[in-house]
TrEMBL record, chain A:
<dbReference type="InterPro" id="IPR029061">
    <property type="entry name" value="THDP-binding"/>
</dbReference>
<feature type="domain" description="Thiamine pyrophosphate enzyme TPP-binding">
    <location>
        <begin position="67"/>
        <end position="214"/>
    </location>
</feature>
<dbReference type="Pfam" id="PF02775">
    <property type="entry name" value="TPP_enzyme_C"/>
</dbReference>
<protein>
    <submittedName>
        <fullName>2-oxoglutarate ferredoxin oxidoreductase subunit beta</fullName>
    </submittedName>
</protein>
<dbReference type="InterPro" id="IPR051457">
    <property type="entry name" value="2-oxoacid:Fd_oxidoreductase"/>
</dbReference>
<feature type="region of interest" description="Disordered">
    <location>
        <begin position="1"/>
        <end position="25"/>
    </location>
</feature>
<keyword id="KW-0560">Oxidoreductase</keyword>
<dbReference type="InterPro" id="IPR011766">
    <property type="entry name" value="TPP_enzyme_TPP-bd"/>
</dbReference>
Length: 349, 601
C-alpha cells in the first residue's frame, strides 16, 4: 500500500507500513549537540513525534540540509539524510525528488542558508513546485559562525559584524516565497508544538513545494528575539492564527479581526466593524495570502501563523517523470538504432 | 580542404555542415572545424562577425581539420580579410562580388577593392555575383528579394558540390525536411543550390574540377559525428550498460549546451534532463540524483566548473558517483566562449579546497568522446567518485567519421547497491577498489546520514579526530590513485625514436599529423597520447624515461608539463600556444623537427 491509498496526494508513491511507529523510532543514535535551550530541540521533537503518524516506511524518508545550526538536523533523525553544503540543499533535494518518486523528501534550512547563500535555489525550487517540504528555521541571526546579522535580522541590529548597527533591510520569508510562486506557505512558532504539528501535517499532505517558516529562538546569539510572541498578554494582540475558510479573528475573546483596507489588509477591533467586513481566510487566494504576509513589518507588531497559501499546481518532478514515462512507453530504447542515426555508410573489405 | 567564410548571418555553418554530410556519404575520411563569434549576430559585414567552417576531406585517413584551405569561399570583404592570410599561394579563392561595395570595404579597412587591384594575384580568383545570380534564379518563385538573397549560401554550396563531384540528392532531401513547414523556402533553397551547381557546369571560368575518391577506412559502418553528440550518446550508452537512469542537471553554457540539447531528446532511454537555475544547482541536482541511485551528470565549460567546485568536493567527501563534463573554452573568466583551449587541466586536478582528488578523463577526438565518456562513467560507478571529463571546443563542435560500435561489445557497467543491514557500514570499503557501499534511500535497514563533514572511518559518523582525518585523506587519495586505467600506448612505427611527444585531449590530431610529417622527413619520433590524466597510466613514468627528450605541446601554458615534471622528475620540453585555435600540424612539425635535430646533433 502506498500513501495514495490514504488519500494524501503529497505522499503519493511513498510506501507505507502497518507497523506501529513511535517518536523513538525516528531518533538516531547520535548525541544531539545544539546549545542548551535552543529552539531546534523543540522542532526536532515535534518532527519526531509527527512523522510516525504518517505511517510511512522510515527508509523512504530523507532529510537534506545545508549548513548552519539547523542543518545538523538530519544527523539526529533515524531516516536517510544528507548534510550537504551551504545553501544548496534545495538543489540536491530536487535531484533526489526527480530521480525517486517513492521518497518523502524534507529540506531543513535556516535564514542564512535559505535566504542568503541559497536564495536562488529556494526561489527556483518554489517556482518549479518540486515535491519537497522545506523547514526554514528562522532565528534572525547567524549562529554557527557565532553571531553575525542575517537576512532576516531587524534593521539597526548590533552584532559582531555590525557594531554600530546593521543598515540591511530584512526579507519577509513568507512574502518572498509567495512572490516566488510557492504553492504552499505556512508559518509556526517553535514554542507552539500543536500549531507547528498542524502546519507540518498540512505541508506533508500538500503535493508540491511546501515552505514552512519556523520562528526559532537562539538562546546564545539572539535570545528573546520572539519573546513578545511568547508572552501571553502580548501574544494575544500580536499573533493572528489563520485557518482556511474561517473569519480571521484573534485576541482572547476574538476582539480583534482583519479587514480589507485599500489594496491590502488591516487590523481592526471586532466591535467596531460589521461581521461581514471580517475577512474570511482563503488559502487559494494569492493576493489575500500576500496581504496577510504584509500585515505588519517584521517588528512583530502582528504575526500571522498557520497556512497562508495552499494551491494545487503540477509539480516539477511529476511533470518531468510524466515526459520520461511517456517517451519510454512510446519509443523503444534501441541503443544500436540511436548510434546509427539517419546517415551511415559502410566500408567493405 | 575547403573553408567557407561569411557573415555570421550568412549560414556558413549550415553550408559547411551539408558539404560535410555529402563528403561523409561519399565515403571520404574527413575532419571539420567550425569557427564562429560569441555574438549571435555581430554587426553585419564586420570582422568580428565573420563565421567560418573548415572541412578537410580525403581518400586516406586524416587526423585534423587541416591548417590551410585549398579553397576559400568568401561571402563578403570581412570574410576575405579575416581568412585570406591562411590561403596558400595558388589557392582557389571564390568571392561573392555583390558584397564588395565601397561601404562594406571601408567597414573592414580596405582602402581599395582587392578584387580590382593586384593584391590577390597570387591566388586563382573566381569572382561570382552570388546574390545577383541567386535572386535571378529565384525570380519566378515570387519570393521577395531579401528572402531570395538569403539562399546565396546554398548557391555557394551548389557550386562547390559541382567542383568536387559531390552527390546532390542528400542536400536536396535535407533542405526539404528542414523547411518542411515552409515549402516555398525549401524550394527556393533547392533552386539556389541547383543554380550554383549549374553555374559551375555552364560557365567556363572553372577549368578544373576535382575528384576525391572514397577513403580506405577500416571495414565497418560509419557515420559522421561531433564531439558533443558523441558525448551525449556515450551517456545514453552508459545508462543502458549500467541499467540505471540518468539525471542530467545542467545550465546552458557555450560550448557545452548541445549535450543538454541532445540528451533531452532521448528520454525513452530513462534520461531526465533538468535545466537548473544556475551551475551550482545543476551539479547539486546531479549529485542528489546519484544519492538516489541514478547516474548524476552535469555538463558545463570552465567558468561553470569554477562554480561547481564546492559540490564536486561534496561528491568527493560523500563518495558518490558523479560525471562532470567540462567542454573547455578560452579563459580565464568569460574568456573566449566559442574558441578552444586546454587550460582547465589544473582546475580539474586541484581546483577544490582541501585534498580533494578526482579522476580525469580526456577524449582525443570528436568520435573518441563516446568511448571516453563510457570509461569515465565506469570509473564513477565502480569507484563512487566524481569524474572530470575534459573535452574542449575543438572536439565538441568538430566532426569526423565514426565507426559505429557493435553495442554487444560495449563493457558491462552494472553495479550492486548495498542491501544487507547485517554487514552494512556507510564507510566500509571494497578491499580491491576502496569504494564505499552505494546505499540508496528506500533500502530497508540501511538508514544512515552522510554529508560534507569529515567521516569516521567505516561508520561514517562525524569525526574530528586528528588520526582519523589523516587516515581518511589518505584513503580518499589511495582510492583515486588505485583506479585501473589502461597503459599508455606509444606509437613509434620505426621503433628507433629518441624523442617522445606527449599530448592529451584534442591535440591528438595535429600532433599525430605532425609526427607523420616529420617521420616522412626521415626524423623518427614517438607519440603517446593520454586519455587518463588522473591517475596517469602505470607505465607512464617508464615510458617517459626511455626517451632522450620528451616534448609536450599544449593549448595552455604548460599544465601537463608541470604535472609530468612534478611526478616523474622528467625535464620535459613544453611547447604552448593559447590563441583559441587548435595547433596546426605545420607548426608542430617544425617544433618536433627542431627538438629531434637537437637530440641527434
Amino acid at each position: 500500500m502506498t500513501a495514495i491509498d490514504l488519500g494524501i496526494p503529497g505522499l503519493t508513491g511513498v510506501p507505507t507500513t502497518d507497523e506501529k511507529q513511535s517518536a523513538r523510532d525516528y531518533k538516531s543514535d547520535q548525541e544531539v549537540r545544539w546549545c542548551p535551550g535552543c529552539g531546534d530541540y523543540i522542532v526536532l521533537n515535534a518532527v519526531q513525534s509527527f512523522l510516525p503518524t504518517l505511517g510511512l516506511k522510515r527508509e523512504n524518508i530523507v532529510f537534506v540540509s545545508g549548513i548552519g545550526c539547523s542543518s545538523r538536523f538530519p544527523y539526529y533523525m533515524n531516516t536517510y539524510g544528507m548534510h550537504s553544503i551551504h545553501g544548496r540543499a534545495p538543489a540536491i533535494a530536487t535531484g533526489l525528488a526527480v530521480a525517486r518518486p517513492d521518497l518523502s523528501v524534507w529540506v531543513v534550512t535556516g535564514d542564512g542558508d535559505a535566504l542568503s547563500i541559497g536564495g536562488n535555489h529556494l526561489i527556483h525550487t518554489l517556482r518549479r513546485n518540486v515535491n519537497l517540504k522545506i523547514l526554514l528555521f528562522n532565528n534572525r541571526i547567524y549562529g554557527l559562525t557565532k553571531g553575525q546579522y542575517s537576512p532576516t535580522s531587524e534593521p539597526g541590529k548590533v552584532t559582531k559584524s555590525t557594531p554600530i548597527g546593521s543598515v540591511d533591510h530584512p526579507f519577509n520569508p513568507v512574502s518572498l516565497a509567495l512572490g516566488a510562486e510557492a504553492s504552499f506557505v505556512g508559518r509556526a512558532m517553535d514554542s507552539d508544538k500543536a500549531g507547528l504539528t498542524s502546519v507540518l501535517r498540512q505541508a506533508a499532505e500538500h503535493r508540491g513545494s511546501a515552505l514552512v517558516e519556523i520562528y526559532q529562538n537562539c538562546p546564545i546569539f539572539n535570545d528573546g528575539a520572539f519573546d513578545v510572541l511568547k508572552d501571553p498578554d502580548e501574544a494575544e494582540r500580536r499573533i493572528i492564527h489563520v485557518v482556511d475558510g474561517e473569519p480571521i479573528r484573534f485576541g482572547r475573546e476574538g476582539e480583534y479581526c482583519v479587514v480589507r483596507e485599500g489594496f491590502g489588509l488591516a487590523v481592526a477591533k471586532s466591535a467596531d466593524v460589521d461581521a461581514s467586513e471580517i475577512v474570511v481566510h482563503d488559502a487559494s487566494d494569492l493576493n489575500l495570502s500576500f496581504a496577510l504576509s504584509r500585515l505588519s513589518t517584521q517588528d512583530l507588531t502582528h504575526t500571522v501563523t498557520g497556512v497562508f497559501r495552499r494551491a494545487d499546481r503540477t509539480t516539477y518532478d511529476d511533470g518531468v517523470r510524466a515526459q520520461v514515462n511517456e517517451a519510454k512507453a512510446s519509443k523503444a530504447a534501441d541503443l544500436s538504432k540511436l548510434l546509427h542515426g539517419k546517415d551511415t555508410w559502410t566500408v567493405v573489405g | 580542404m575547403i573553408r567557407f567564410a561569411g557573415d555570421s548571418g550568412d549560414g556558413m555553418q549550415l553550408t559547411g555542415d551539408r558539404f560535410t554530410s555529402e563528403a561523409a556519404a561519399f565515403g571520404n575520411d574527413l575532419a571539420t572545424q567550425p569557427n564562429f563569434p560569441a555574438e549571435i549576430r555581430a554587426p553585419q559585414g564586420t570582422l568580428p562577425g565573420v563565421s567560418s567552417f573548415q572541412l578537410h576531406f580525403a581518400d586516406y585517413d586524416i587526423l585534423t581539420p587541416g591548417d590551410r584551405p585549398d579553397v576559400l569561399v568568401a561571402m563578403n570583404p570581412a570574410a576575405l580579410k579575416a581568412n585570406v592570410v591562411d590561403l596558400p599561394d595558388g589557392g582557389i579563392l571564390i568571392v561573392n562580388t555583390d558584397e564588395f561595395s565601397k561601404r562594406n570595404l571601408t567597414k573592414v579597412g580596405y582602402d581599395s577593392n582587392p578584387l580590382e587591384d593586384d593584391s590577390l594575384e597570387k591566388f586563382q580568383v573566381h569572382k561570382v555575383a552570388m546574390a545577383t545570380l541567386t535572386i535571378g534564379a529565384l525570380e519566378e518563385t515570387g519570393l521577395g528579394k531579401k528572402d531570395a538573397e538569403r539562399a546565396k549560401n546554398m548557391f555557394a554550396l551548389g557550386l562547390l558540390s559541382w567542383m568536387y563531384h559531390r552527390p546532390t540528392e542528400g542536400t536536396e532531401r535535407f533542405l526539404r525536411e528542414k523547411f518542411a513547414k515552409k515549402p516555398d523556402i525549401a524550394e527556393a533553397n533547392v533552386l539556389a543550390f541547383r543554380a550554383g551547381f549549374y553555374y559551375g557546369e555552364t560557365t567556363e571560368a572553372f577549368a578544373v574540377t576535382y575528384e576525391v575518391a572514397p577513403a580506405k577506412l577500416n571495414v565497418g559502418t560509419y557515420r559522421q559525428i561531433t564531439g558533443n553528440t558523441a558525448t551525449a550518446y556515450g551517456i545514453v550508452a552508459a545508462a543502458q550498460l549500467s541499467k540505471l537512469p540518468v539525471v542530467l542537471g545542467t545550465y546552458p553554457i557555450t560550448p557545452a549546451s548541445d549535450i543538454l540539447h541532445e540528451l533531452s531528446k532521448h528520454k525513452n532511454f530513462d534520461i531526465t534532463t533538468v535545466q537548473a537555475e544556475d551551475e551550482i544547482a545543476g551539479i547539486g541536482i546531479a549529485l542528489g540524483a546519484s544519492y538516489g541511485g541514478a547516474i548524476g551528470v552535469t555538463s558545463t565549460s570552465g567558468p561553470g566548473i569554477a562554480l561547481k567546485s564546492e559540490t564536486i568536493g561534496l561528491g568527493v567527501m560523500t563518495e558518490l558517483p558523479l560525471l562532470v563534463i567540462d567542454v573547455q573554452r578560452g579563459g580565464p573568466s568569460t574568456g573566449l566562449p566559442t574558441k578552444t583551449e586546454q587550460a582547465d587541466l589544473l582546475q580539474a586536478m586541484f581546483g577544490r579546497n582541501g585534498e580533494s582528488p578526482v579522476p580525469i578523463v580526456a577524449p582525443q577526438s570528436p568520435s573518441d568522446c563516446f568511448d571516453a565518456v563510457v570509461d569515465a562513467t565506469r570509473i564513477a560507478l565502480k569507484y563512487r567518485t566524481p569524474v572530470l571529463f575534459l573535452s574542449d571546443g575543438a572536439i565538441a563542435n568538430g566532426s569526423e567519421p565514426w565507426m559505429i560500435p557493435d553495442v554487444e561489445t560495449l563493457p558491462d557497467l552494472t553495479v550492486e547497491f548495498a542491501t544487507d543491514p547485517e554487514i552494512f557500514q556507510p564507510y566500509s570499503r571494497d578491499p580491491e577498489t576502496l569504494a564505499r557501499p552505494w546505499a540508496v534511500p528506500g533500502t530497508p535497514g540501511l538508514q544512515h546520514r552522510i554529508g560534507g563533514l569529515e567521516k569516521q572511518d567505516v561508520t561514517g559518523n562525524i569525526s574530528y579526530d586528528p588520526e582519523n582525518h589523516d587516515k581518511m585523506v589518505r584513503l580518499r587519495q589511495a582510492k583515486i590513485d588505485g583506479i585501473e586505467v589502461p597503459d599508455v600506448v606509444v606509437e613509434d612505427p620505426d621503433g628507433n625514436a629518441r624523442v617522445l611527444v606527449v599530448g592529451w585531449g584534442s591535440s591528438y590530431g595535429p600532433i599525430g599529423a605532425a609526427a607523420r610529417r616529420v617521420r616522412k622527413l626521415g626524423l623518427p619520433v614517438a607519440h603517446a597520447h593520454l586519455r587518463h590524466l588522473n591517475p596517469f597510466p602505470k607505465n607512464l613514468g617508464e615510458v617517459l624515461k626511455s626517451y632522450d627528450k620528451v616534448i609536450v605541446p599544449e593549448m595552455n601554458l604548460g599544465q601537463l608539463a608541470l604535472l609530468l615534471r612534478a611526478k616523474y622528475l622528467v625535464d620535459v620540453v613544453s611547447y604552448t600556444k593559447v590563441q583559441g585555435l587548435p595547433f596546426k600540424a605545420e607548426e608542430l612539425q617544425d617544433v618536433l623537427a627542431d627538438v629531434i635535430k637537437g637530440v641527434s646533433a
